Amino acid sequence: MPVKVNHHLPAVKILASDNIFVMDDKRAEQQEIRVLKILVVNLMPRKMVTETQLLALLSNTPLQINVDFLYMATHQSKNIRQNHLDTFYKSFDEIKDEFYDGMIVTGAPVENLAFEAVDYWQELSTVFDWSRLHVYSTLHICWGAQAGLYARYGIPKHALTQKLWGIYHQTVENPKHVLFRGFDDDFVAPHSRCTTTYASELPHDFEVLSCGERSGLAIAVKKNLREVYSFGHLEYDRMTLDFEYQRDKAIFGENIMPDNYFPNDDSTQKPRMNWASAASLFFSNWLNYAVYQDTPYDLRDLAKYEYFNL
């Protein structure tokens, strides 16, 4: 079912070519149903790629979704034209009086910096504070997960001895949890990071839902599902790690293969795509059980609900 976006967004044409239905704003205006409002805080440098990846996953549900994209006004993007941001994105000042059923905070290639050294850290921290009264459930991804835990609870990230990079097995710790309905006992997911978060440092009202022998803590949630933290990249498409591999080899002269990615560790071969079903199911479960089932019909009532623990 459809995700509603500006009909000129380049990702719409790409998804249509893959037979993925994205409803444009003109058609959506003719429907008389309560759509879900999702805010995507896109911190990734290749914004158009991330837009396409996330919209493909959000569209795989029987729900109509209105998606807004947010950029950091305090950061000068180097990999996207300002015209794209002006046309398809909003600044925090433009959305600060809005309310959303859900929010997605992407990763960002800044994990080797201290959080406070990131040029848009203060702005992002403001978004996290704002979300407590304006967003029902937030899905944090990779560095976005580490940033959320640090901003909200002061939980630090820890440097790894070597980069965690590739496709890794993860276990389902609680098969009965709503976010893992339909999952097998284990699955694989892409990871690409130099830092990690320790499960032992999570607040008492959190639950670890997935971890791996190599990946460590993979997915954790606040028990009321208002906050979901995924430290991998289930949203990655088949060729994302290949792009990162080719980029790093060209820039740094490194030839470090992502683990369990290229067949026979041969970068000339097409990478295996073996996490798509898990990604689709995870995002669908988040939209259904963490967002749709509990969000108040009138989003202005968000601040009135006792279970927000405010």
Describe this structure in words.
There is one protein chain. Helices cover about 30% and strands about 25% of the residues. The protein is of the alpha/beta class and about 300 residues long. The protein has 2 domains: about 5-235 and about 275-310, Rossmann fold (3-Layer(aba) Sandwich), CATH 3.40.50; about 240-270, no CATH class. Strands 1, 2, 3, 4, 5, 6, 7, 8, 9, 10, 11 and 12 form a 12-stranded mixed sheet that branches. α1 (about 10-15) crosses α3 (about 45-60). It holds the Pfam family HTS. Its EC number is 2.3.1.31. Keywords: Acyltransferase, Amino-acid biosynthesis, Cytoplasm, Methionine biosynthesis, Transferase.
Quick structural summary:
With 310 residues, the chain is α/β, with parallel strands linked by helices. The chain has 2 domains: 3-236 and 277-308, 3-Layer(aba) Sandwich (Rossmann fold), CATH 3.40.50.880; 238-272, no CATH class.
Given the structure, what is the number of helices?
9
Using the 3D structure, state the CATH architecture of the largest domain. 3-Layer(aba) Sandwich
CATH superfamily of the largest domain: Class I glutamine amidotransferase (GATase) domain
Q: What does the oligomeric state look like here?
A: single chain
- The rounded distance between the terminal residues' Cα atoms is 34 Å
Q: Would you give the CATH topology of the largest domain?
A: Rossmann fold
- Number of individual domains: 2
Major sheet characteristics: 12 strands, mixed
Strand percentage? 15-25%
The stretches of 5 or more residues where confidence is low (pLDDT under 50) are: 306-310
Shape: globular
Structural class: alpha/beta
CATH class group of the largest domain:
Alpha Beta
* Integer-rounded radius of gyration: 19 Å
Please provide the ordered H/E string of secondary-structure elements: EHEHEHEHEHEHEHEEEEEHH
